[in-house]
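Two proteins follow. First one:
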Amino acid sequence: MSRRKLKQSPSSKAEPKTRPLLILASSSPRRRALLAEHGFDFEVIAPSGVEEIAPPHLSPGETVLANARAKARAIVHSDAVVLGVDTEVFFEGRVLGKPADMNDALVMISRLNGRTHEVYSGVWMVSGKKEYGFVVVSRVHFHKRTAAELSRYLARIRPLDKAGAYAAQDDHGEMIARVEGSYSNVIGLPMEGLAEKLDEFLERK
């Protein structure tokens, strides 16, 4: 089955206009693919020494924004816009990060099975002394699957590098019944309106 194509509005594509160099502060191949598919020219510099946090006193939105800000600020480049992103799965008031092993992945996806959860992404832009960030939230509804179906799904997607132990970009409707909000956000980078937000950021004094 072919990869699910994202629905694109006319505003979701990057406009062909001159911008400073865009640096993606992430090693995620999914984020790189989304930016490329939407027409952005960019370079990738993975931040080093940045530890993601999820303290209980922060809301989900504050958590992803703090992590995105730390990633963007870790890349020093005077002639570029640095884009930091953090995406987390939240369920029943807790962050579901990347599973430690396949047993942990099975426990994690079994909790989400047949239920609804939220995916939060924080996006932070840095250019010189200017900074700006925003948060996007999507609600994800899962099908109810048997234990055997869950095991086969995990074997197919290799979940150990995926928050929540599932892969929205390779799901093909197997687990995801529907998404309220941005589907690209669930993959790892909310593309809707990103070009416009980037241009608004660059126009700020």
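Second one, unrelated to the first:
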Amino acid sequence: MHWTMWATGGLGLAMALAACVRGSDGGATPQQTGKVRVSVYDEQGKLVGPIETDRVVKSDAEWRAQLTPEQYDVVRRAGTERPGTCALLHNKDKGVYSCLACGLPLFIADTKFESGTGWPSFFGPIAKGNVEEREDVSFGMSRTEVECGRCGAHLGHVFNDGPPPSGLRYCMNGVALNFTPTAKLATLADPIARTGATTQPAK
């Protein structure tokens, strides 16, 4: 899907690119604790939920051991990958994009579109609760940051200049995402799916 944004040329594009960026402040993003309600895949490759589960909380040392330096900088320190460098940017295969840090499904391929920014863009998340949004006032701008709904990984930002039907543009760091093709969705099976949650429409 292609979408011609108002910001596809000159100064407008420069502003759109800058808006996607959030620099690191040198410290890890604070982690929240408690319960969340998210949707996950079961062993049959069906999306089920929402299901109540604990947030994923790890020590800084554990995150550093799990992630590469680039991944850590983005998902734990709210860094930003260079535009145009992500292997997933031009991926057009059917499937699901999930959180690199905890495996939570975040976006389906049918919601992905070409925004012209150099980062993978989507017009909506896979399910309510699987992403969280919060105010970001860094760089003197007021924006909406997007985080994983289960582990709090920094994913990117959401803007109101996207295509129908939502009019939203979830501008994501590709390094924060994993992609699983439709034929292999059962490999995303999450243990919490066994709690008997209602199956959602096929994705």
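SUMMARY FIELD: The chain has one domain: 37-195. Confidence is low (pLDDT under 50) at residues 4-19, 22-26.
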